[in-house]
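Sequence only, no structure available. Ideas?
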Amino acid sequence: MLLIDKSWSLILNIIIERYLAGSTICILWHDDFEWKLQGEAKSYSSFVGIQMKTLSGSFARNVVAVEAKEQQLRQNDLAYDDLMLKLTISIEMSHCESFLVFGDHIPIFVAAFSKASMYSIWRSLHNRFVFAHVEMELGESCCRDFFFEDQPNILFVVRNSANGTIFELKTNKYVGPRAEEPAQLLLLDRFNASKAQFQLNTILFPDKLRDLQGREVIIAGFDYRPYTVIKPAQSKGIPSNARDVGAAAQSDQAEVHIDGTETRVVLNFCAQFNCTVQIDTSDAYDWGTIYPNMSGDGAMGMIIQHKADICIGAMYSWYDDYTYLDLSMYLVRSGITCLVPAPYRLASWYLPLQPFQGTLWAAVLVCLGIETLGLVLAHRKEQKLYEMRDSEVRSWWSSWAFGLVTTFKLFISQPGNSNVKSVTVRVLLFACFLNDIIITSIYGGGLASILTIPSLGEAADTLHRMRSHRLQWAASSEAWVYSIRGSDDPLMQDLLSNFHVYSDEQLLHLAHTGHMGFTVERLPFGHFAIGDYLTAEAIDRLVIMKEDLYYQYTVAFVPRLWPLLGHFNDLVYRWHSSGFDKYWEFRVVADNLNVQLQQQVESTMPGVGQGQDDINIEPVTLGMSNFVGILVVWVLGITVALMAFLVELLSAKFKLAKSCSTP
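Reply:
I predicted one. Tokens follow.
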């Protein structure tokens, strides 16, 4: 019995000292495996011990209260048991990264750990697993779980018999195509406990990630350009660089050519680490959602269902999805903006006032007032100078009437009919005529330009204008507004109240009405991700907003514990540092998008080309809408003239009646 204890203790302490030091180790103790920590491993303090037999009663003695975690799991309708809860707390609070499990506890642990690693908000990319058991103790079904296919750092310590001293050290294959059974165990070394030595002295946790030997990396994605581009290779006559595992093997859709600003990151990753890129579009009809009960749909659902390894295509760092998945370092900045209705031409009743600004109209009125006052005073002096005998003619009233009427006639370029005798008045009239003809000419030129090249209204091209116009805007998925749904900003809440989700067919119809806004993505280097429902004819009626509704950084979502995430992030860092992100955006847009459509949208931006301010303002044939304001002035003049005529008739009749009644 003493030999058994020393054998297990010897090999396990060596493994702990050499390979597990520096991480918190979670040990699932087993009564049939008697061993103890010795040497340097004994002084290592970061251990979490779990006793399977007394597990249910151990929570009361925990330093960390588990009630809050239990309540969270129950609220999300997530099934759990005592071991799953214990592992979740150990990972989340103690940051367990290494695990030591024995015998028949191994399959129980694997099932519990797969869930616990997702229940815990804390996650690690450096997990190591040591599974110790006696040969023939576990059945062949032990290693058929996807866990053994997806984790590279697994070490089996297999004793040849219950009392034996020979230990075989095995690891899962991990690398190579899935058809070659990456979960199968390969012998690494043997350890002789009686001699305390290894046969080959190989590394027990080899780096399997440097060369994946053709292991498949499956992308969950759909054709969303320029992030992801999927083209059937056979029908397009282009070389295939990936296989769509969601399509039938013999169909024309099986062999595809994939491209895109984010897809190229994955392609270059596999070129560096010797993996095979595949894509699965079977359920990736949309970005999708992860639900609190760990179910999902769309592309995101494929990750949590272990149908794909990585999900790309303008995936934002949504917190709800990050809770159960893992995400990469940011890929690109994406600004969510809208194509909004272009400003309409203005044809209003105040059109005659538009040639001059308000300050200029005030200056014109002051000038006319000065003219009137000068003519009144000059006319009055003329009356005194020539000693007009008619008292009515020599009154101030006649001078004011002369000044007002003459000024008005000169302003509209009409001749006067007054008999002027004074040279002073004649010179003053000449000066006023020159002044008024200049003002009238300037006004006429301004009015002509406004009539032929009319002014435009205000476009809803900012956040505040969208709210003030109450503009209805739409997209093909709720994912466009996931990131701002929880915002407490009143402006965002008002904008979201006008947001709608429609199918592509409905959006295609609505886009041609020119009465709604439509979401597009603004890429970091000046291009746009535009939906297929926005055609060139529709964009003729739209302009791009001056600012973004909001912006996010796109990421790649991967399953929890995806071992390749560290290397993938390193590649993304180098990608950004090299400047390839800019080059790839221009290259992908040129190869896969409608460049004319891109230029059409870009031309509506202020300060680019003609810009928003010059949209649809070319000279046009005049219509009745151009004369609405002038007609209002004409009708007003006719009305005033009729009223004045009636007053004159009544006054004349009254005077005639008065003269007839006088004896």
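The first helix runs from residue 2 to 20.
Hope that gets you unstuck.
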